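Box 3.1. Reading complex inputs
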Amino acid sequence: MNIVTMALKDLKLLWRDKLGLFWSLVFPLIMALFFGSILGGNGGNQKGLKIIALDLDQSKGSKALLDHLESSDSVSLTMAKADQELGALRGAVLKGRYVAYVMIPKGYGGGNMFFQSDSDANLKVGIDPARRAEAGYLKGILAEGSMKRLTTQFQDPKDLRAQIKKQEQDIDSAEDLKDADKKELKSFMGSFDRLLDKVDFNSGSSTSTGMANPINFQIDSLTAPRTKPASAFEVSFPSAILWAILGTVASFTISLVKERKSGTLFRLYVAPQSIFHIVAGKALACLLACLFVSVVLTLIGTLAFGVRLQNLPGYVLALSSTSFCFVGMMMCLSVLGKTEESVAGSSWGIMLVMAMLGGGMVPLLAMPSWMLTLSHISPVKWGILALEGAIWRGFEMGDFLLPCAILISVGVVALMAGSFIFRKVAYS
Amino acid sequence: MLRVEQLCKSFAGTTVVKKLSFEIGAGESFGLLGPNGAGKTTTIKMLVGALAPDSGSITLHGQSMHESPEIRRKLGVAPQSLSLYENLTGRENLVFFAKLYGLKGQELKTRVDWALDLADLVSRQKDLVATYSGGMQRRLNFACAVVHNPDLILLDEPTVGVDPQSRDHLFRSIEKAKSEGKTILYTTHYMEEAERLCDRIAIMDEGSILAVDTVANLIAKHGGAATITGELEEELKAQLQNDALVWDDCQFRLTSHEPVKAIAELAGSGLPFKALNIKQANLESVFFSLTGRTLRDA
C-alpha cells in the first residue's frame, strides 16, 4: 500500500513540475514533429504515390486516363510492359516497390457509356486496404480522369454519334432482349441522335452528364507485412517516445537526489517500511510516468500524424520492456552523485550518448552499418527497434523477443545494482 | 522505554559517536545538549534506523530498532532540515506522511486536522509549502512528526532558523505533547531550550556523553559557584576590604556558593556601588566546567 502512496505522491510532484513535464512530454513532441517534418512528414513518399499501371486496352480513352494520372503532382506513374502478367504487378505492390497498381482492362476505352455493367471493362486497383487514405486519393484521381473522358465524349457530337451507332448495333445483336424492348431502345437512340442537332456544344452547358457512378473499380486487396515506414512520422515518433522516457527518467533521477538533499528521504527511511518499499515506490511512479508520456505521444502520432500500430500486443510489450529498462537505469543514475547538479549532469550525459548511439538522433533506418553495429550497446536502440517493430517493421511476436529480452535484462541488472548502491548510501 | 547502550559510529576513520549509553523513561522529556558536531544528529539517525551503528544496541519497549521495522510506527521524527515536499500543500504533506504510518479513513482525516490545528496552519493548508515562511515550515515539520500519534517524539534541533514567535509556538506544542504523556528526545545547542523543555539532560561533546541528570542536579554538581560582579569609583576601592575580590580596574568579581549572603555583606559596607550583580551557575557553566569551553565557542 505504501508503494502506491509513494508512487502517487511522486506522480503528483512530477505533474506540478512544469519544467519536468516539458522535458517529458513537450520536448519529445517537438522532436517528433521537427524530425518528422524535415524527413518528409506525411509526404514520406516524396515523389508522390508510386503507381504502376498496366494498359491492356491501349485505346484513346485508356491513354487519356493514364495522361490524367501522370499529370497529377502526387502520382509517380510507372508503365508496365503490355505483356506483363497481373501477378507481377501484385508482387511489386506486395514487396512495397509501389503503393498500388492500376490495370486498365481491354474494352475500357470503347466501353458502353450509356449502359455500364460489372463487366471486365472495370478498372482494377490493387492496394493494401490499410492504406485507406492513399486508396481514396487514387480512386478520386481515377474517377476524375474517367469523368473527364465522358465529358469529352459528350462534348464531341461525332464521338457521340459513333457511340449511338454502336449502341444500336449492340441492341440489334442482343439475344436476351425482346423485340418490343429493342424497338423502344432504338427509338430512344434515334431521339437522342436528333437531339444532338439542337445542342450547342460550345456553350459548355452539357458538361454535366447526369450519369450516376460513371466508373466502377475492382479493388484487389493486397495485404503484406510492411517493412518500410509509411511516413517519416513513423520513424520520428518511436524516437520521440524514447526521448520522452529519457526525460521522465531524468526528472525522477533528480527527484531522488532532491529528496535526499531536502531530508524527505530521511523521513521515508524512518517510516515503518523497508528500503525495498521506497525503491519500489519510486520505480512504480517512474514506470507509470514513462508509460503515460509514451501513450500520450503514441495517441498524438496515431490520431494526428497517421502513425499506425501494426501490432498492438507487440507495442504493449515493447513499451513495457523499454519503460522497465529505463526505470532500472533511473535507479543506477540516481546514485551517481550527491548533488542535483552532479546527478543531472552525469545522467543527461550518459543518456545523451545512449540516445546518440541508439537512434535517438540519427534514425536507425539511416545509420551506416558501422554505427548500426555500435548501436547494439545502447538500450535506446533496442527500445526504438521494438517500437518500430510494432509500428512499421512488421514484427511478429517472436521478433520482439530479442529486443525485449535485452531491455528487460538491462532493466533488471540496473535496478538491482541501483537499489544495492542506494541501500548502501542510505545506511552510510 | 528507550534504551541506548554502548552506541558507536565512525565515518572514514573518525569516531563521531563513542560508546553512547542512556535511557529514557516513558513520559520523560530528555535533552541532548551539545555544540554543533557533538554527534547529536548522528545519534538521532541511528535511533530511528536511518543509519546503522558500528556497535551497540538500541531498544524501544525492549525491542531492537533494527530488527523490527514495525517498531518505528511508534516513533515520530522532526529532522533538523526541513523535510517537506515543497510542491505539495501543507495538508498533502501531512496526509502523505500519515498514510505511511498506516492511517486511513476517518482517523486519517481527524489526525491531519488535529496536526494542522497544532501547527496553526488551518488557513494555509491548501497552499503549497514553497509559499510558507520559514517559521510555518518548521511548525509543519513538527506536525508531520506527530501526525500519526507516536509514543516517542525525536526532535532534532527543531528551532533552527525560527523567528521568536514560531519558536514560542513550537515550545507550546512540545509542552502540550509532554503534558499528554509523550516521551520526547530533544537535541539542541541552546541551553535555554533544554532548561525549559527537558526533565533530564545529557551534556554531549565530541561524540560522548559527559554528564546526565536533571538541570538542577547538573548545576549543583558541575555548575560551580555563583559569580558576583560590581563596580566602584577608583578612590573608594581601598575602602572595600575583601581578599576574595578579583579586581580589573574599577570592576571586581567574586565567586561564592552563597551568593545572597556575599552580596548582603558587600551591600553592608555602605559604599555607593556603581553596579552590583549576581550571576547564578547555569548549563553554560556546567558545559564550561566539563569541557573547558563555552557552548558558543565549541
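In summary: The longest helix of chain B spans residues 164-179.
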